[in-house]
Amino acid sequence: MDTWTSGKNFTCEVKFNSSGNSVKKSTRILFVTIMLFAKYLLLSFMVEQVQGYLHQFQPFLFVNINDTAKIQCSSKKQFLAGGITAQWYRRWEGEAPMLIKRCSDNQNVNKVACISEGHNLTLEIYNAQRNDSGVYYCTDSYISFLTFGNGSTLIVGDSYTTSSWVLPLAPSPHGLLSPGTADLACVVHGVSNPVQISWSISGDLQEQGLLRSLKAKDGSLVFINHISVPMATWTSGKNFTCDVKFNSSGKSVKKIARYIEAPASECSHYIVPLAAGAGLLLLLVSLSLIWTLCPSTLGFQPRISAPPQEQQGGILYAHLDFDSRNRNRRTMQRSARGKRVKP
Q1: Which residue, among 165, 151, 221, has the nearest Cα to 192 in the 3D structure?
Q2: pLDDT (tens digit, 9 = 90+) per residue, 119-169?
Q3: Closest CA to 318 of 285, 340, 302
Q4: Given CA atoms 321, 325, 327, 332 in this order, what sign does their dihedral have?
Q5: Cα-flanking dihedrals φ and ψ of residue 152, to 5°?
Q6: Would you say the pTM of this structure is higher than 0.70?
Q7: Over the range 53-86, which residues count as b (16 or more CB within 10 Å of their CB) and which as e?
């Protein structure tokens, strides 16, 4: 058996004639194939059993400072001996999960208690404070695996600060990365603890988006919640609302993003005014030229200025011109002089 399991090749060689050719078969290849297939079946069975084994149905839980927080977890099977194999972990933003409670011990019961009832497991945190905020995971040992629940985010007090703001980010009409989907993000800046971020499309609540978090130098947190929607949904004109809750008051901050169709050109809104202005200017220039060069074609005659009046020796001379309106006759002028003697 030791030789068989050593991994050596066991070859069966069969010759049928004097040509020197033969048929060779290795039993090690068959053995390795069977082992790999058996391992695949075992892993598939274990994944199927573990998947959905623990479930936490409180994605977010808000409590006031000094209140008691109760985080619940359910199992497909009963917890053994009052949850003797169950544990609770807490994860702060930017850090790895940390064990805070083994249900099998009685340590720190004045602050944290683990209560098991059949298929349900509850973590109770007394006199909750801001630093108790975080993501809590229930765990249990299944065969040789430590399985985790999907997590519950506990928010104690108010996460809003004077530097907090919410900003929705939407793709520009010219900056769509994928022709089939549109990516939107909701940025929550300057908060002290986790917040609840949800999306709705014209009032219809959407599934939880992908959440990322960053920690600033001043210790404040930045959360980015990202969703992807079909391009047809984004360009339909519906309102995409980012809803952010900071505390248990029930109030929230809502910001709306909406698709706006891009103009054909950045300068297109200047074309009509420029064309109208150019047309008016051309018309004015044309009329000015006609007025200057051909005044008679417009029905007007040039005005002849009369010479200044002269007075000599008590006699007043006047020169009167009468223009004719008939274009086919020559201009006729009549003069009239009058003489007046001084008294």
Answers
A1: 221
A2: 899 999 999 999 999 999 999 876 667 888 999 999 999 999 999 999 999
A3: 340
A4: negative
A5: -135, 130
A6: no
A7: bbebeeebbbbeeeeebebbbbbeeebeeebeeb
